[in-house]
Every structure is written in C-alpha cells, then in structure tokens.
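RECORD TYPE: inverse folding
INPUT: structure tokens
STRUCTURE:
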C-alpha cells in the first residue's frame, strides 16, 4: 500500500533529473572539486577557452620503456568535454613502440592512423578471439569498451594516431603494470597467472614493482 507512492516519487525525481540534463547544454568541469561517478561538478564561470585545448599539438615523449606516448585530452586536461560522453588523445609511437595490452573500463575507443603503420587489435570476452589488423595512414579501427587491446608500431619510422573515446574519462588499466608495477605479492601473481616466479621477479624489477 505504501510502496507505490515511494516508487512514484523515485520515478518523478529521475524524470526531473533527466529533464535537467537534457536542457543543460554543457557542464564544464570544475577541477577544483573532486571527480565523481558522473564526472566533475559544473564550473560556474565559463569562457570559450574552456572548449579549446592545445595539448595535442606537440609530440609526446617516447623516450621510455615502451617507446610510446599517449597525450590525453580527457576531462582532467580538457574540462569542456566533461559530461559529454566523448574525449580524444594523441598516440605517438617511435620505431619499435608499443602500447601494451590494456583496457578502458568506461569507454569504447576509435583509432585513426595519421602517419606510419600501426598493428592494432583486441581480444573478445567470448572465447577470447583475437581481432588484429595492420593499419596504414587514414585507416580506422574500433575497440569495444572494456576489452583488452593493444597498438604497436609495425613500420620502420615513427607512427602517429589519434584515438577518441565514448567517455570524457574512459579510464586506463595496463595489464603489465597491474601485475608487475605494484606490491602484488609475487607468490599470488604466480598462482593466479601460472607464470614462473623468476620471470615475475624479473618483470617487477624492470617495471618497478615490489616482490
């Protein structure tokens, strides 16, 4: 008897929230406040500069262990995309560069190759089927949300791509770093991955993890 009014109230609140989100043109991130599941709170004072970002013009620093760099324009860097369900990043791959297996828990990804040759692929969650392709300038590939995927430079010179996401902050988890760049006990890594203890310790040493 008393349940129906409560349900109607919840429906009404959800309806009002939906209408409010539909009539609000944008929600530029207020980076002085903490991020939440729905993104950053809205900034009160907005200018045209909030909708422009210059950070993708320069190449990223590829002098590192993976010979690659990802320069993001997510909501923490580009407040104007907050709440819009999209973002972009620049991908620089030196010769031999690779973006190791990783996932974006909160968004699907599209890669467009601007320069060079990139081999890219992903692994499905159904029977672990691998889909990969060598991409050339102008080619585009999509990576579904949450699936393990990779990109590597399969040419002789530098490669450049831009990746867009279906989220203003898609998240990132690199598998190698999750296993070997922290204090995940070596014995547990060995038991849960079937890797050799010596190899695990070697990888932890390379990536900065603790045994």
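DESIGNED SEQUENCE:
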């Amino acid at each position: 008897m008393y349940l129906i009014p409560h349900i109607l109230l919840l429906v009404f609140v959800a309806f009002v929230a939906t209408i409010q989100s539909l009539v609000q043109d944008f929600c530029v991130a207020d980076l002085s406040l903490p991020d939440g599941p729905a993104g950053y709170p809205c900034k009160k004072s907005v200018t045209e500069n909030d909708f422009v970002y210059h950070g993708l013009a320069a190449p990223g620093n590829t002098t590192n262990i993976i010979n690659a760099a990802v320069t993001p324009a997510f909501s923490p860097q580009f407040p104007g995309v907050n709440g819009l369900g999209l973002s972009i990043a620049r991908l620089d791959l030196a010769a031999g560069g690779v973006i190791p297996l990783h996932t974006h828990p909160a968004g699907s990804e599209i890669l467009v190759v601007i320069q060079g040759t990139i081999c890219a692929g992903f692994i499905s969650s159904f029977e672990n089927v691998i889909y990969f392709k060598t991409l050339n300038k102008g080619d585009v590939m999509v990576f579904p949300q949450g699936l393990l995927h990779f990109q590597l430079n399969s040419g002789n010179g530098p490669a450049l791509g831009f990746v867009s996401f279906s989220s203003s902050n898609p998240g990132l988890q690199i598998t190698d770093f999750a296993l070997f760049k922290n204090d995940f006990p070596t014995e547990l890594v060995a038991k849960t991955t079937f890797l050799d203890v010596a190899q695990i310790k070697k990888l932890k040493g390379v990536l900065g993890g603790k045994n």
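NOTES: The radius of gyration is 21 Å.
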